[in-house]
Amino acid sequence: MGNFFISVTDLAGLLDSNRHPLLYDVRKPQAYAESGKTIPGAVWRDHTQTHSWAREIPAGSLVVVYCVHGHEVSQGAGKALRELGLDARVLDGGFEAWCTSRGATVPAPKPEKT
Predict the structure, then answer these.
(1) Would residue 92 count as lying in a domain?
(2) pTM for this entry
(3) pLDDT in tens, 33-55
Protein backbone atom coordinates (compact mmCIF):
# COMPACT_ATOMS: atom_id res chain seq x y z
CA MET A 1 0.00 0.00 0.00
CA GLY A 2 2.85 2.49 -0.32
CA ASN A 3 3.35 5.66 1.62
CA PHE A 4 0.62 7.17 3.78
CA PHE A 5 1.20 10.71 2.45
CA ILE A 6 1.23 11.98 -1.12
CA SER A 7 2.85 15.25 -2.09
CA VAL A 8 1.09 18.02 -3.98
CA THR A 9 3.48 17.41 -6.90
CA ASP A 10 2.75 13.66 -6.98
CA LEU A 11 -1.02 14.24 -6.78
CA ALA A 12 -0.88 16.78 -9.61
CA GLY A 13 1.02 14.23 -11.70
CA LEU A 14 -1.57 11.54 -11.00
CA LEU A 15 -4.44 13.88 -11.87
CA ASP A 16 -2.79 14.44 -15.26
CA SER A 17 -2.26 10.70 -15.83
CA ASN A 18 -4.42 7.71 -16.64
CA ARG A 19 -4.20 6.59 -12.99
CA HIS A 20 -6.54 9.27 -11.71
CA PRO A 21 -7.14 8.60 -8.01
CA LEU A 22 -10.51 8.85 -6.31
CA LEU A 23 -10.25 12.20 -4.55
CA TYR A 24 -12.19 12.96 -1.37
CA ASP A 25 -12.37 16.35 0.30
CA VAL A 26 -12.91 15.55 3.99
CA ARG A 27 -12.68 19.07 5.38
CA LYS A 28 -15.12 19.85 8.15
CA PRO A 29 -18.38 21.24 6.70
CA GLN A 30 -17.72 24.79 7.89
CA ALA A 31 -14.20 24.89 6.40
CA TYR A 32 -15.51 23.43 3.13
CA ALA A 33 -18.35 25.95 2.92
CA GLU A 34 -16.19 28.94 3.87
CA SER A 35 -13.55 28.05 1.28
CA GLY A 36 -16.03 27.86 -1.57
CA LYS A 37 -13.58 25.85 -3.67
CA THR A 38 -12.18 22.36 -4.00
CA ILE A 39 -9.73 20.36 -6.13
CA PRO A 40 -11.21 19.38 -9.53
CA GLY A 41 -12.72 15.91 -9.40
CA ALA A 42 -12.93 15.81 -5.60
CA VAL A 43 -16.09 14.78 -3.82
CA TRP A 44 -16.83 16.08 -0.32
CA ARG A 45 -17.47 13.42 2.30
CA ASP A 46 -18.02 13.66 6.05
CA HIS A 47 -14.84 12.51 7.76
CA THR A 48 -16.87 11.26 10.74
CA GLN A 49 -18.73 8.82 8.44
CA THR A 50 -15.75 7.33 6.60
CA HIS A 51 -16.73 3.71 7.26
CA SER A 52 -20.14 4.41 5.74
CA TRP A 53 -19.08 6.11 2.49
CA ALA A 54 -16.04 3.88 2.03
CA ARG A 55 -18.44 1.20 0.75
CA GLU A 56 -18.83 3.15 -2.51
CA ILE A 57 -15.11 2.84 -3.28
CA PRO A 58 -14.25 0.03 -5.69
CA ALA A 59 -11.59 -2.40 -4.47
CA GLY A 60 -8.17 -1.72 -5.92
CA SER A 61 -8.76 2.03 -6.29
CA LEU A 62 -6.14 4.55 -5.30
CA VAL A 63 -7.81 6.98 -2.90
CA VAL A 64 -6.52 10.41 -1.84
CA VAL A 65 -8.14 12.33 1.00
CA TYR A 66 -7.44 15.86 2.13
CA CYS A 67 -8.52 18.34 4.77
CA VAL A 68 -7.38 21.92 5.36
CA HIS A 69 -3.83 21.20 6.58
CA GLY A 70 -3.44 17.41 6.19
CA HIS A 71 -3.52 16.75 9.92
CA GLU A 72 -6.05 14.99 12.16
CA VAL A 73 -9.14 15.09 9.95
CA SER A 74 -7.66 13.63 6.75
CA GLN A 75 -5.22 11.37 8.59
CA GLY A 76 -8.12 9.86 10.53
CA ALA A 77 -10.08 9.28 7.33
CA GLY A 78 -7.03 7.85 5.57
CA LYS A 79 -6.33 5.50 8.46
CA ALA A 80 -9.97 4.31 8.49
CA LEU A 81 -9.84 3.65 4.73
CA ARG A 82 -6.60 1.69 5.08
CA GLU A 83 -8.12 -0.37 7.89
CA LEU A 84 -10.82 -1.33 5.38
CA GLY A 85 -8.12 -2.55 3.00
CA LEU A 86 -8.10 0.42 0.63
CA ASP A 87 -4.99 2.04 -0.84
CA ALA A 88 -5.53 5.45 0.74
CA ARG A 89 -3.16 8.42 0.87
CA VAL A 90 -3.35 11.75 2.66
CA LEU A 91 -2.43 14.92 0.78
CA ASP A 92 0.64 16.23 2.58
CA GLY A 93 -0.14 19.79 3.70
CA GLY A 94 -3.80 19.44 2.74
CA PHE A 95 -5.84 21.85 0.67
CA GLU A 96 -3.77 24.76 1.94
CA ALA A 97 -0.58 23.29 0.41
CA TRP A 98 -2.46 22.57 -2.83
CA CYS A 99 -3.58 26.21 -3.07
CA THR A 100 -0.14 27.56 -2.08
CA SER A 101 1.39 25.58 -4.93
CA ARG A 102 -1.21 27.09 -7.27
CA GLY A 103 -2.98 23.80 -7.86
CA ALA A 104 -6.19 24.07 -9.84
CA THR A 105 -9.41 24.64 -7.92
CA VAL A 106 -13.06 24.76 -8.89
CA PRO A 107 -16.14 26.11 -7.11
CA ALA A 108 -17.18 23.69 -4.40
CA PRO A 109 -20.58 22.11 -4.98
CA LYS A 110 -22.97 21.78 -2.07
CA PRO A 111 -21.88 18.75 0.00
CA GLU A 112 -23.70 15.50 -0.71
CA LYS A 113 -25.28 13.79 2.25
CA THR A 114 -23.43 10.62 3.22
Answers:
(1) yes
(2) 0.93
(3) 999 999 999 999 999 999 999 99
